[in-house]
Amino acid sequence: MKAFDTGELPAGQAAVSSRKALIILYVLAVAFYWASLYFYVPTLPLYVKTRVDSLAAVGTILSMYGLWQAIIRLPLGIASDWAGWRKPFILGGFLLSAVGAYVMATTSTGFGLGAGRAVTGLAAGTWVLLTVVFSGLFPPEDAVRATAMLTVANSLSRMVSSGMNGWLNETGGYPLAFFVAIGVAFVAILVVLPAREQRLAPVQPSVKGIAGLITRPDVLRPSLLGALAQYVTWAATLSFTPILASNLGASDMVQSLLTSGSIGVVTIGNLLTATLARKAGNRTLAGWSFALLAAGAVLAGLAPSLVVLFVAQFIISVGSGIAHPLFMGLSISKVDGSQRSTAMGLHQAVYGFGMFAGPSLSGALADWMGIQPMFILTGVLCLILGYLGVRWLASAGL
Questions:
Q1: Can you give the pLDDT of all 398 residues of the chain as single tens digits?
Q2: Which end of the chain is more exposed for a tag (fewer CB within 10 A), N or C?
Q3: Domain limits, the chain
Q4: Which fold does the domain 19-193+217-395 belong to in CATH?
């Protein structure tokens, strides 16, 4: 797919069009973009808990992030293919990241936090177009490798930004991390501005064409398995593990280390996918990812101390790091370039519902049975559904 003009630029036009330069620009833009979404994440559940009275309410507010990115991603992919442009939508997403952080920093109510989290969910929809633009700089057969490379930048950025959360809280209280996120979102805008984009031939959407794409086994099945992996990740690492850690005596600094460390470990899984995708095979990697996610969730459910909880997070994070780029790459590996934004929009919309269901359903379960029994149930269901899902991939020829 040729999305960018690599020819000579007109005199005086400050734009970047070479493939190598575009790869660097988009890697940097992705790093700043994800940092803007994660500076406040490690202690966000605790921050929300100061505004509401129940774990179910905490889960509902946190789930707005997954819900609204699930809602926006497919329409965003369709709109981008229809317009033939990616960059304007990407810039809009970066701006929404700043807006959402501002709303959460300045509100004093649970409703305001939910609204701000919803706006950041809309901002997260931009990941659809970033992955499509980046994968378009590589041959189609390298789709999984390209998404794994970009996800490494994603993971490292989230690790560094979330690792700063505890220090930012101690320096200026909860709001400071949100204001740092606002500044970094504007840096992301400045980084991507020089990237020159050549308009693609617009693809007018049709109900028949979209329905055909949605029902394709090679697109839908990796998307559903990606949703399962995201459910476990968001039920544990990014929602209720911080609260469990607090119950076990963790400070804000330890909370920050727990989340940033787990995100850093995700990078190990990303690198394994990038390195072993061709050698080990997609189904083998998928099987390992679900086994690790399940084992980590069950161990968190049994954890008597912070040390064991850290180990559980390590295991979950390796599994998540394998699953995310694997299923993302598989979902577009056989799709024509003109429909890749729509296919990626579908994939990320489906797994966005996993991000929504993770906090919301697990929050209700945690209120009913307790946080640790909820983790055990989550792990058991992940193992069963993951095993069935890998067999399902085989029947789709993936």
A1: 444 443 333 333 345 667 788 888 999 999 999 999 999 988 898 899 888 888 888 888 998 998 898 889 888 888 888 888 889 999 999 999 999 999 999 998 999 999 999 999 999 989 888 988 887 787 766 766 777 778 788 888 988 998 898 899 889 988 999 999 999 999 999 999 988 877 777 777 777 777 887 788 888 889 999 999 999 988 877 778 888 888 888 887 888 888 788 877 877 877 777 677 667 778 888 999 999 999 999 999 999 999 999 999 999 999 998 888 888 888 877 777 667 777 877 887 888 888 888 888 888 898 899 999 999 999 999 999 999 988 888 776 66
A2: N
A3: 19-193+217-395
A4: Growth Hormone; Chain: A; (1.20.1250)
